Amino acid sequence: MTLDLEMMGTKARQAAYDLALLPTTKKNELLAKMAQALLENSAVICAANEKDLAQAKDLKASFVDRLRLDEDRIKEIANGLLQVKALPDPIGKIDTGWVNEAGLQIVKRRVPLGVVGMIYEARPNVTVDASGLCFKAGNAVILRGGKEALATNKKLVEILRAVLEANGLDPNIFQLITETSHHVAEKFMQLNGYIDVLIPRGSARLIQTVVQKATVPVIETGAGNCHVYVDQSADLQMALKIIENAKCQRPSVCNAAETLLVHQAVAEEFLPKVADTLGKYHVELRGDAKTCEILGDASVLADERDWDTEYNDYILAVRVVDSLTDAITHINTHNTKHSETIVTNDQTNAQRFLNEVDAACVYLNASTRFTDGFAFGLGAEIGISTQKLHARGPMGLEALTTTKYVITGNGQIRQ
Amino acid sequence: MTLDLEMMGTKARQAAYDLALLPTTKKNELLAKMAQALLENSAVICAANEKDLAQAKDLKASFVDRLRLDEDRIKEIANGLLQVKALPDPIGKIDTGWVNEAGLQIVKRRVPLGVVGMIYEARPNVTVDASGLCFKAGNAVILRGGKEALATNKKLVEILRAVLEANGLDPNIFQLITETSHHVAEKFMQLNGYIDVLIPRGSARLIQTVVQKATVPVIETGAGNCHVYVDQSADLQMALKIIENAKCQRPSVCNAAETLLVHQAVAEEFLPKVADTLGKYHVELRGDAKTCEILGDASVLADERDWDTEYNDYILAVRVVDSLTDAITHINTHNTKHSETIVTNDQTNAQRFLNEVDAACVYLNASTRFTDGFAFGLGAEIGISTQKLHARGPMGLEALTTTKYVITGNGQIRQ
């Protein structure tokens, strides 16, 4: 192994200490310069990307599409940096404060996390997006992207580092791991003391690998087995629009619905409408026995695995439930704690669902598709946390910070 | 293995869902009843404790002391539950909220974490303290205490569970792992999906084992290599009182000072006073060359390891530094990110220290001994977090909660 991860970690820590003290206007100035530099270097970025694409030509079309950069996409990525520039700086905010018994002033102040480790797949946009967000929140970042994007990532990071250097900042705020073996990735996940948090972004498999192998704290993101529950009292027209949107507007994303639960009292009326509407999108319905009884040929019989599957595709599991309680139990048993919605006009049932369903985001009469940083209004997101520690749901800039107690006295000692 | 950890986890999850809905008054009522039950069962608890003590009689005196319960200690433990009862309930608090572009009301509400796993040593008081705090924050808890306290822990948990059962609650809110092998402990640390967070409490070795082995999210607590820095402009009388308090008031705890840094301009005047004052407590001083030059026989020469050692004893490492910058660099290189203090009358230096030192708690002109939940005024604590994720510094009840986005609409779909 030629790569010295501890050395990278040490450099990142030092760079992070300097960056933590940088005022907001200076950070914003640099974000604008980075955006500018990406646009100016569009041609060389595309040239590097061509090398990666040449290697990847036998891979799946959707994979290659995510890997591909062109001038328009580079413009989008540069715009992303300008959006981050426009966000309020989370650093320095006082969350709370008080004076204790001994007369000490105790203030809880937002500070950067320090060094963030990003592990992701062959999506070069993540390289810049994550760097921009980490930078604005005052963190150094060590990036480990998918090996298929290595030439592109090298070029992108080289450009961002050059901007830092040209402006008198430590370029080690951004570092890329250029040795993409699993062995190095594993060591990266165990760099305790050098990295404050690891954020994996990508497939469920990637995220699970990181959760299993890492000894550094991880924020688990992404997997979404989301449910739409249509209650007895639901406005069925509204319910139809919501399931259509939640399933079909963009089936490949984590906040798309994967299972529809329908109260038995409205199943016979509602399910044929669902089959009709989703039929236009060629959605495959996988129903329980009752659903199949109602829908006949329009549905195939689901098996137990369907309740736990995130299809990310034009497939929907459907189940008829006897009661709200059964719906809540089904969701809490099978969901990934991401986003769940109830469609109802019954206030009591709405409150029960919102209180009892265990998920980062619980909705009343709205599509699950709103679970993301932009739709929420957070401005941008580094991911959607499906764990309960530190951050839950869409993570904006504040999720990339921690707090520090600043305590001022005049000689107090403990009695 | 006779123990079914998954089954315990499933039971805990179910119990947690019920507990999450319990109103504050009911939780408080039950905490009072648990305190009462402990007092009433004092004799049987002591009898169980006698069995553990009989097995432990050849172990270190300090170990046996921590294991021992008597009527007074049981009273203290019961009082601890009443203190938790008196704390405000963190559940249900709305942290923030807004209406987004689409007209959805988005509210971020405090909810319990769910299931907390506690791993700790042979200190039976932790069994009750942790149970009380988790209960008040609406969490089920699975306890894994040191094997030397097994008989005592069994009895304590039996008493607490009986109170729950007698009051119509699920006793599986509190569960004890009664098989204390390392194999079972390791499996417990990897119960992803069943446990939402693991909190280890105890020695640095225990905590490091959990950090290394766990795949469940961990909150790292405890280790404290804390520094007192005496600046050039310090009030030396104040500085003397602070180092005396930080080192000697209770040397065995994590917020005690382990290293004294002194600006070279005041070292000759200050260090003999330190030797004099700490000499009364027979504190061993381990100094750098400059310190030894000033103190002669009153100090032994430190080696590099001393800067990284948490003595938890009447030993203090001492170093003369050339500047504030050197002091900050020393601290950021060697500290465990716990608690650090500067003694100074220089406002600029004070601000630099508070801004640039990387620790959960940074102090100006006060003893590091204030870093704990009670001294802070949080009422009680589940531990002191030395990591940056989720919670940092003394963790009160809020650290045992997470948030949930509750989103209400009237048919909104994503465009």
UniProtKB/TrEMBL annotation, chains A, B:
Pathway participation: Amino-acid biosynthesis; L-proline biosynthesis; L-glutamate 5-semialdehyde from L-glutamate: step 2/2
Superkingdom of the organism of origin: Bacteria
Major enzyme class: oxidoreductase
Catalytic activity: L-glutamate 5-semialdehyde + phosphate + NADP(+) = L-glutamyl 5-phosphate + NADPH + H(+)
This enzyme's EC code(s): 1.2.1.41
Function according to Swiss-Prot or TrEMBL: Catalyzes the NADPH-dependent reduction of L-glutamate 5-phosphate into L-glutamate 5-semialdehyde and phosphate. The product spontaneously undergoes cyclization to form 1-pyrroline-5-carboxylate.
Protein name: Gamma-glutamyl phosphate reductase
Record gene name: proA
